[in-house]
Amino acid sequence: MLGLVDRMSPQTLRILALVIVLGAVILFFAAVVPNYLNGRLFNRVSSSVAIMALIATAQTLVIITRNIDLSVGSTVGFVAFATGSLVTNNPEIGPVILVAYAMALGAMFGAINGVLVAFAKVPSIIVTLGTMALFRSALVEFSDSKSISTANLPEWLISFPNTVLLQWGQLQFRAGFVAAVLVVIVVHIALSRLRAARKLYAIGSNPEAAEMAGIDTRKTVFVAFVLAGALAGLAGFMFLARFGTITVVAGLGFELKSVAAAVVGGVNIFGGSGTVIGALIGAILVDLIDTSLVRWQLVSEFWREAVLGILILLAVAADALLNRRLVAARQAREHRRAEERIAAELAGRAKGQSA
Amino acid sequence: MTSRKTLGLTAAFMMGGASIASAQTTLEAGQEVDMVLLPKFLGILVFDQANEGAQEAHAELGNPGELLFVGPTPENSVAGQIEIMTTSATQGQGAVMLSNNAGDQIAPAAMAAQEAGTRVVTWDSPIPGGEGEDVFVAQVDFGSIGVVMADMAHSILGGEGQMAVLSATPDAANQNAWIASMQEALEGDAKYAGIELVDIVYGDDQAEVSYNRALSLVDQYPDLGVIMSPTTVGIQAASKAMQDEGLCDQIKVSGLGLPSEMVSYTMNGCAPEFALWDFRDLGYLTYYTAYGMATGQLTGELGESFTAGRMGDYTIEEDPGRPGSKRILMGPFTVYTAENVEAAAQ
Amino acid sequence: MAGQPRHGAIEVSRLAEPILELRGVSKSFGMTLALTDMSLALLPGEVHGLVGENGAGKSTMIKIMTGVHQPTGGRIEVDGAAQVISGPQAARALGIAAIYQEPMVFPDLDVAENIFISSASQGLWLRRGEQRRRAQDLIARIGMAFDVDQISSGLTLAEQQAVEIARALSEDVRVLIMDEPTASLSAHEAAQLRRIARTLAGEGVAVVYISHRLEEVFEIADRVTVIRDGAHVSTRPIGEVTSEGMIAEMVGREVGNYFTKAASTATAEPALEVAGLTREGTFEDIGFTLHKGEVLCMAGLVGARRTDVALSIFGVAPASGGTIRVNGRETAIADPSAAMAAGIAYVSEDRRKLGLAMPMPIRANVTVATLGAFLSRWGLLDAARERDAAEAFRERLNIRTPDVELQVGMLSGGNQQKVMLAKWLNMEPDILIFDEPTRGIDVGAKAEVHDLIRAFAAGGGAALVISSDLPEVLALGDRILVMREGQQMGVLGAEEATQERIMALATGQATLKEAS
Q1: Which of A76, A150, B219, C224 could form a disulfide with A251 if both were Cys (CB 3.0 to 4.6 A apart)?
Q2: Do residues C89 and C164 share a domain?
Q3: CB pairs below 8 Å between A and B: how many?
Q4: CA B229 to CA A1: how far, in whole Å?
């Protein structure tokens, strides 16, 4: 076990710490909520986290470059609505085109953010605070007070997220969740293996040095926003498929939840480090706490938000502490080993001299 | 079950009250007055329907003035409503027709508007304390909504079982009043003795929150029989959740919903019955009331009676739910079942 | 040490065509003329020393060569053809790279990732194994050895510079500009870096070597260019230059030996008494007494933990054990404000991180620690009095700036250092800790800073000076405390201290008894 810990990268250690915290949270609620641990819990959280996982992934891409995107919630809402009205009016449109449409629309919104942040050099928090309101108002205008309703959507779309692909005892792996996890894994592989993805980390890690190293920071930040927009667009499609009903409030509050999920998942809010797998676990943790709190009788409706906030802070603190411990323990062992190695070397040398 | 249950009892009783009042006012058309129709926020279908009704009345009365339909964006509802109220007063609007989402927080702005000569007529959702409000146009008797919801639960559960409520926000005045009246009905009538109200949760009128809350209820109360949701967003999200999880056999959804949005769930049995009133009519009646008051043809006295075009005669009376406040009761409303929902959804 | 021509390669390369040539380049920022008619030719295989006072225009030259700035006049030629270097990317593509005193690494990325971050020519996917191997090769090629998988934030400065050099090498660098690369390195590390520079030159790279340590320039350079006030003064083979002549050209006048030993003003009255100061895993059992009017220098190699001791006295990272007495009274210092209240100030080594607010004007930086003294009757800041104070310091410290409203970030390193000194002198502290006060600043400014420290002590202040520059330590210190890896190795009196004895202690080759 210790040997395993020693071989893990800091990022992997971080994820290990998160998984431990996740386990602790589950045990805690299992102790205070009757009939808590069952397959249903998994099914609930996994279906519900599918959308937030995509948005947290989008948010992570942007945060890694030392930026933030507060307009993701509005993007999700707009895309969900626009995609819904497209398919309502043209029921013959197939899944591939619809998904492409949603992602392209999201990417377009991301491009607006990207141009303003990367090329006009306006701080991202200001840009996206503006576009958050702008995209939401655009939705109010575009929707003309109509809402998308399940009745007008094609059957394949509505049944997609809940199609059970794999059943293992009570645990159901549904298409929505599986699709989201696949996307997260693809983005994870891209981030960790693509040469170009290193540039995102480099810019967030040290923007000045990135410029000096000849990285086109403007283009890279722009691309990060466009990709985040496309992922938010995909989340909008998933939102449409899952809820069917889209009103102008769709996606309200997702921006802060996604930031919370990313930060809980160990993404450095100042950029430069973090993984989307972490963000996925962060999203799961936030969703799990949210879902479980409703079932915890002790906490009334009015205190729930506050308790949610406190539990998120506790989870972040526990994770940070645990992570530090794991890293410190590993360093101590490495140090000891290095000392032993040097001692052995010296002993060998002494022997050589005496010989 | 009848195809269209019309709850005329309350309304008929109120009509009786009208005869005590003084002379019946017929509003004189063609007077010029600018008015504002202010919904909770923009982008919700029922509010647009109310606007259609108000525009109909506006044309019918030949008002050369302007009828503005303005509202805040969803994330800014409370502050936006207060701001629009204040702006309307400074613009010297004749009347503001408000579906209040700001609780009593809007009262100071509304009182200031009244002082500036703007009449404040609320509809759909009143100002809870009644301050700053001339009259509330109630879609139905709030007490009777409670009874109807209790009746629907009774019919779905067969008289015996657990019920949970999925409401909008914890401080929505109309939903809270309806839930309270339902609780009163459940306690007051032995007929409902077998129905147990186990919990009240809030979905914030957002599809995803309501959806998740509905599922949490299922997890928490294994014997739950019906989810009662007095909000159009909540009832639809809950129905979708039960359908997605294949729970429609165990747990039914009921409450207040739009036929066009609910038709598939009613037909497949997830939401066998639900109720609603006509928001076009509500907008129409509200416009008549506000027009009458803004042009000085109505004073807003208790007992005052007038004719609201195609909808007939109405009387200003004391609001039984809010002592000291005045209301005009529209009524009746409709219970939808598999037999009438498809026609209504067209 | 100037004199005989050494590097045989230079005779060959002199015949070669220059790789990079500046011809009559000028650059102005608004009204300020930073460079005028600057010419410089860099030959393959040479180490080209570039010297000049702070503010002489060296940084601007580097920025023009690396594409950060565009020249306002003149032209740049690469391989004899005129080129526009439109940005850092374009410079890299032409094989021009720079490394700095404060290395530009990405703290969150590992060594291998740092090295290959900007190489675009290697396909879509990262090949970790190959990347790692090549990183190891590059590190080995420049004679270093460390784990290329570790995260860069844990590297020493020398290792970070090695990473930057390796990055340049990975891109087939042809012109490598080294800007004060050894200013923060230990003697051993500096020697290693100079060796790397020679190796690269041997491979045909043109190395531009900028340093304030003139002895270093004499050791390594084939040719040396002196610039002053944004203009070219001279370019000569190193054999034709003397140290005195070079300094004269840099400052434009003859200067005396700046390492003259000033008379001690130390009294017997203790200002700061430290006993048994310990922070676990960092330093242990540090004990000394600093008297009023005294200058106590702390010597040691990089990693001796001198700065950590200073930071714990200043309350940034309080010690876990030991006592601190200020003016005879035991004082608990839990944070910097407690230290400041006790009359202790700290002039940071790292101007950027701990010392100055770069985007703020000089005026605001000078007064930021003592704002309470600049309030008007209504409790508002009195900008006029702030200006007066800043102006006074500008004259006293000879800060070269047209205006005290200029952003500190716009000043040269030496002048930034002076602003930082002004900030703390303005507090009128009893005890002032100077951490590497002359690091990376030129000869003239060094002498000025020494005078300031002396004047502070002469006025009854107690000065604790951390310095890695041994001649400076010897010239400045009334006594010298030597540390090694968190241990106090001993305190030497000025009369008994020599470079050799200090080094013997600092490297652990002798204890105080053996050394004395």
Answers
A1: A76
A2: yes
A3: 109
A4: 52
